[in-house]
Amino acid sequence: MASLRMVLEKPWLWSFVGALVVWVATVAFTGGYGAGGMVTAALSLAVFTVIVGVGQMFVITLGPGNVDLSLPANIGLASAVAMKVMGGSDSMILVGLLAALACGAAIGAINYLLIWALRIPPIIATLSASFIIQSVDISYGRGLQIKPPPGFADFTNWQVLGIPVLAMLTVLFTIGAALALQRMIYGRSVLAIGQNIRAAWLAGVDVGRIRFLTYTLCGGLGGIDGALLAGYFRGANVDIGNEYLLASIAVVVIGGTSVAGGKANVPGVWGAGLFLVLLLTMLNTFGVSAGVRLVLTGLIIVGVITAAGGEKALR
Amino acid sequence: MLQAIADIVRLDGAEKHFGAVRALNGVDFHVGAGECVGLVGHNGAGKSTLMHMVAGTLRPDGGRIAVRGNQEASYSVARALELGIRCVFQELSLCPNLSVAENTRINHPSLSGLGWRRKAAALIQAKLDEIFPDHGIAADDIAGDLSIGRRQMVEVARAFTLTREPLHLVILDEPTSSLDAHTAGQLLAFVRRFVEAGGSCILISHVLGEVLQNADRIVVMRDGKVVAADAASAFDRDKLVAAMGGAEGHQRTAKETRKAEAGALRVRARPARQQDGKELVARAGEIIGLAGLAGHGQTDLLLAIFSAASRARAGVEVAAPVALVAGDRQSDGIFAQWSIAQNIGIRSLQRLRNGLLISPQREAELAELWKKKIGIRTPDMNNNIYSLSGGNQQKALFARALGSDAEIVLMDDPMRGVDVGTKLEVYDLVREEAAKGRTFLWYTTETEELDNCDHVYVFKNGRIVANLRRDELTEEKIIQSSFGDAA
Amino acid sequence: MTAIAPGTVPKSSPRGNAARARMLRSLLPALSLALVLMAIAWLNPRAISYFGFNLMLNLAIPIALATIAQMFVIAGNELDLSIGTFVGFVGCVTATWLRDAPLVGIVVLLGSIGVYALLGALIHLRNLPSIVVTLGMSFVWQGLAILILPKPGGKAPDWLLAILAFKPPYVPFPILAALLIAAAVHFGLMRTSYGVILRGSGGNAAALRRAGWSLLKTKIVLFALAGLFGVLSGMALIGITTSADANIGNGYTLLSVAGVILGGGEFVGGRVSPIGAVIGALTLALAASPLLTFMHIPPDWQVAANGAILIIVLAARVIISRRER
Fold first, then answer.
1. Are B240 and B341 members of one domain?
2. C-beta atoms of C304 and A132 within 8 A
3. Among candidates C126, C132, C300 on the partner chain, residue whose Cβ is nearest the Cβ of A135
4. What is the pLDDT of residues C109-154, one digit of tens each?
5. What ipTM score was computed for the predicted complex, to two decimals?
C-alpha cells in the first residue's frame, strides 16, 4: 500500500512505465525480434530530446509564461554553425562544438534580453527571435551541404555493448542537471522563482540573473543538441530541429514537471523521452501511417496534460 | 431590536475556516430594512469574510443565512443579486479593459439588445451625477485609464444603478479609502439619502468618524467574532477603539528604556512622497515601529529599503544585509511546494553550501536550530510548509529572516491573523535579537505591538507625519496622527 | 509598486495622458501599415493599383481570418498554437470532402468547430495551460490533414473559387473583404452586449464571476469563435490556392499571433482589437513578400522581416508606455 502510494506520488515513474509498456507491446508484436536493437535505437534518439528537454524544463520551471519557442530555429542554426566550423576536419571537432554552444547560448541571452528590455511575455519574445534566427539559418546555410568530420559522425554513433556512448554521457549530464536543480543555489533559485517570483525576490533571490542564466542555459543546450544532431544524421539542415519544439515541451510535461512552475523532474525527462521515441517506433512497427502517428502523439500529450491537470498555467 | 421579519439579511452562527485559520467563529449578524450598519474591526478581524458571505461569494462552513426572513439553503452570488443584495468589494472589481458603460453592463444582464450602450451610459452617468455631482467621468472612459479614486467612484455608483433586479442592501467595503474628503462626503451624504429612502447599507470603514456619523448601528468585530453591537449613539471614538483593540489582557510589559547610547547607523530612508525633511533613521539594536492605517506607504518604504540593499536607490541608505518577513504569507512569503526546512533555508543558501552543493545536513541543522529557538510545532521539519498552522507558518518565515546573515530585519505587518501565543513568543525573540545588535523595522496595524518598539514613525498618505519616542507613545497619539479625519 | 495616494484624488488626473498614450498605441498598427505601403509605393509605384493590390494582398484574407481566430483566444487570456495546422486541416477537408460530398464536408467542419468549443471547456474545467493543449492539438490536426490528403492535391469547390475570384469595381476584393471582416468582428466583439462579457472575461475574470456570469461559457464561446474563423480561413485559403496540402497552413500559427500583437492586442487583460488585428494581418501579408521582393531582399529573409517588424512594433510600444509615466 505504502509503496503503491509512493509510486502514485511520483508521476514521473509513469513515463518509464509507459516506455516499458510500449516496448513490451512492440516486442510482442515482432515476436521478440529486434528487442535489443530497439532499445539501442531508442536511447540514441532519446538523447537529443532529453538534452533540449532539460533546458526547456529549467525554463518552464521558472513559472507561468516561461517557455522557449526558439529551440527549433536555434538547433537548426547551431547545427549549421557547428558543421561549418568543423569544416569536415577531425581536428576542429571541439572548436565546432564550442561554437555551437556559444551560438545557442547567445540566442538564449538575446531571448532574455528581449523579454527584459521589451517587457514582453517569453512566448512572443522567443517567437520573434525564432523568426529571425530561422532566416539567419536559411541564409547562412544556403548551398551548404557540409558533412560532419568522420570522427564526429562516428563518435555520435559510437556504441559500447549496444549502448550508445552519447546516451551514457547524457545520463551523466542529466545527473549533473538533477544535482544542479536540487542541490545547487542555482536550481533552488529557479524552483523558488517558479513557485512565487515575488516571494523569491523578497527572500533575496537575484531573480533577473537567474532568469537570464536559465534562458542562456536552455539556448546553449539547444546549440549543443544541434551539433550532435548534425553529427548523428551526418549533415546539418534547416529543418533538423523542427520536431523539438513540441518534443521538448512534451517530455517536460509527461515527465512530471509542473507547467505551473516551481516543480521540476529530471529523471522524468528521460522516461518521457524514451516513451516518445518508443511510441513512434511502435507505431512504425505496427505499420500505421504518418497521419495516425501524429494524431496519436497529439492525443497522448493532450491526455497526459489533462490527467496531470488542475494547475495553471503556461502563459 | 427590530423584528426578524423586517431583516433584509440575517446570519446565525456563521463560521468559516481557511486551513487552520478560523476567519469566522460563530457570528450572528443582521441588517434591518432602512438601516445603515457600521462594521468596524482591525485587519483580519473577519469583516471581509463576513461580507463575502452576505454577498454570496463565500459559502459558510457552518451557520445559517436568511434573507427577508426566508432561509437560503443554496445561497450564491446570483441568488444575492436576485434578492437585491450587492457589494462593492475592497479590491476593485472593474474590468480595466472595458469602458465605464461596459462595466455597468456587466452587472446588469438586462442591459442588452439594441441601444444597450446608450442605456448603460445614461444609467451610470445619471447615478454618477447623483452621487458625485462634479465627477468629471465620461461613460466611454476606459476604466484602466481612470485614477484609482475615480475607479472607486464608478464602482460605488455602479452598485446603486437600478435595472430589473431589485436593490435592497448595498455593502460598502472601505468605499472611501481612495476618495478625497470632498468626494467621500458626497458619497456618505448619498448613503444617508439612500437609507432614509428605505434602502439598507453596510458600511465598513477604518475612518471611525465616518462610521460614527453615518451608521445607525455599529457592530465591532475582533478575531472572527462580534465583540460589540449597539446603536451608533451608544459609541464614541474611545469606546470603539477600546472594543476593537481588546483592552483586556493587554498589560504593558514595563520595559526600561534601553540603550541611552546610539548604535551604528543602519538605515536612513525618506519616503518617495515625503516633502518636508522627515526621514526614517534606524540604528543597530533598535526596534523601529511603522504605524498608521493600512496601506499608507509603510510597505512601500520597507520595499524601497529592501531593494536599496542590493541596488543603490535615491533617498535610501542601507548599511547592512537585509531580510524581510512578509505579512501576506501566500503572496510574499511561502514556497508552497517546499518543506519547512527548505522554506527556512532559502535566504541562507550561501552559508549552507559545502563546495558547490547545498549540504542537506547543514540545512537540517539550521531548521532544527530554529525549530527549537522559535518553537515551530511540527513532528518533522521535512514536512510540507502547509502542514503547519498559520501561526507556525509565520514562525517559519521569521526563522528564515532571523536565521540569515541579515543585520536589518524588515517586518511587513507579519502578525496578521496570528494567534496570541505565537505573537508573544515572537515579541520576546525580536527583543532578544535586537539586544544582540540587530535592527528591526516593524510595520504593524496592531497598535499594541508598537509597545515593543523604541520609537515609532506614523504614516499617512505615504508620508511620515510623526516620530514618537517610546515614552511619548500612546494609542491616542497614534490614532490622532493617523486617523486624523481632517484631510 | 504603484504608489497610490489614498485619500487624495489629484485634481489634474493622469487620465488625459493615459488616454492619449492609448490613442497613440492604437494608431500604431495603422501607422505601420501606412509605412509599409509608402515603402512599396516608393519602390514600385505601379504596385499601388487595383491589380497590384489584388496580387499583393492575395493571401491577406486567410491570414486576416486566422488572425481573428487567434484574437478570440487571446481575448480570453489563452493562446492557440494549433491554429496553423487547423487551417491546413480545414483546407484539406475543403479541397476533398466539401467538393465531393458537401454534406460530409459540412458536418466535419462543424464538428471541428465543436472540437474547439470542447477544448475551451476542457481548458477551463481542468485549469489547463492552453499552450500545451493546443500544441498537442496541432499534431492531431496535422495528422488528420495527412490522413485526408496524403499528397498535395484536391480541388476547391467551384462556388468557393467563384467567391474568391470576385472582382468588385474600384476596390480590390482583398481590401473589401478585410473591411468586411473587420467591421463584422468589431461589431460582434466590441459593440454587442455579450461581446463585453467576452472581453471582460479576459480583463477581470473574478469580477465577472462575482457578477454571476459563467466563465465556462465565455471560454467555450471564445474557442468556438476561434474554430469558426479558423474554418473560414482554411476555406478562403483553398479558394485562393485552388488545391490543398497538409502543410499549407503551418505558418499561420506564428502569423496569427504576430498579427494580433501587431494590431495592438495584448497577451493578457482582454485588450484586443479586431480592426487592429486585420490591419496587422495586412501589414504582415504585405511585408512578408511584396515589400521584400521590391526591396530585392532575398526570400530567405522574409521570415526574419516578420520577426523584426514584431520586435520593432513592440519596442515602439514600450517607448510609448514609458512616456506615459
1. no
2. yes
3. C300
4. 999 999 999 999 999 998 888 888 998 999 999 999 999 999 898 8
5. 0.85
B21 CB burial (10 A radius; 0-12, 13-18, 19+)? middle
CATH number (domain holding residue B205): 3.40.50.300
Question: CA triplet A106, A110, A115: central angle to 5 degrees?
Answer: 150
- DSSP at B99: B
Domains present along chain C, CATH in parentheses:
47-324 (1.10.3470)
Is B321 a member of any domain? yes
In this prediction, residue B258 carries a pLDDT of: 52
Assigned CATH topology for domain A35-308: ABC transporter involved in vitamin B12 uptake, BtuC (1.10.3470)
Neighbours of A171 (CB within 10 A): 15
Task: Please tell me the distance from the alpha carbon of residue B84 to that of residue B78, in angstroms, as a whole number.
Answer: 10
Q: Quick check: B338 and A191 CB within 8 A?
A: yes
Among B337, B357, B404, select the one facing A262 at the smallest CB separation: B337
For B115-146, the pLDDT digits (tens) are 899 999 999 999 999 999 988 899 988 988 88
As a whole number, the mean pLDDT across chain C is 85
Q: What is the pLDDT of residue B251?
A: 43
Is there a contact between A315 and C77 (Cβ–Cβ < 8 Å)? yes
Confidence bin at B428 (pLDDT 50/70/90): confident
**Domain end call among B245, B275, B291:** B245
Q: Give the whole-angstrom CA distance, residue B208 versus residue B371.
A: 41
Nearest to A294 among C142, C261, C300 (CB): C142
User: Is residue B258 situated within a structural domain?
Assistant: no
Predicted confidence at residue A148, as pLDDT, reads: 86
Amino acid at C60: A
Pick from B249-258, B478-487, C257-266: least confident: B249-258
3-state secondary structure of B156: helix
For residue B23, the enclosing domain spans 4-245
Residue whose C-alpha cell is 517588424? C309
Query: What are phi and psi for residue C320, nearest 5 degrees?
Result: -65, -45
How far apart (Å, rounded) are the C-alpha atoms in residues C243 and C241? 6
For B479: left if phi > 0, alpha if psi spans -120 to 50, otherwise beta; the answer is: alpha
- Domain boundaries of chain A, sorted by first residue: 35-308
Q: Which three cell numbers stand for residue A110?
A: 538575446
Domain count, chain B: 2
Whether B326 and B228 share a structural domain = no
**Does residue C7 belong to the interface with chain B, where contact is any CB pair within 8 Å?**
yes
**What pTM was computed for the model?**
0.82
Whether chain C has a CB inside 8 Å of the CB on B110: the answer is: no
Band (pLDDT 50/70/90 cuts) for residue A223 is very high
Residue A3: per-residue pLDDT: 56
